[in-house]
Design brief:
The chain is mainly α and 92 residues long. It is built from 5 helices and no strands.
Length: 92
């Protein structure tokens, strides 16, 4: 019961989602590397180019999915007292 209550807190949710996305990107990148290491249907230069491109795409997609998750919880962010008190700070 304690862990379920802990998981309902927003920072824990965000950290969990971030760790899951990092793990998914890691495993996708490793599987791409394994695929290109095991196959040889292109010359080595093109395989490296495709592998580099696919690695960059997976990193960007992971970041985009994380930002989408953060934006989908923006109403929860506004209800936090820290955010609310930060917006009430007078700017001098």
């Amino acid at each position: 019961m304690f862990f379920f209550g802990l998981f309902q807190q927003l920072p824990v949710k965000i950290l969990t989602v971030a760790l899951l996305i990092i793990l998914m990107v890691y495993f996708i990148r490793k599987s791409i590397k394994l695929f290109f290491d095991k196959t040889s249907f292109l010359d080595e230069k093109r395989e490296k180019t495709l592998m580099h491109f696919s690695n960059q795409v997976t990193k960007v997609l992971g970041l985009v999915f994380f930002f989408i998750y953060l934006l989908s919880h923006s109403s929860t962010w506004q209800s936090l007292s820290l955010v609310r008190s930060w917006w009430q700070v007078p700017w001098h």
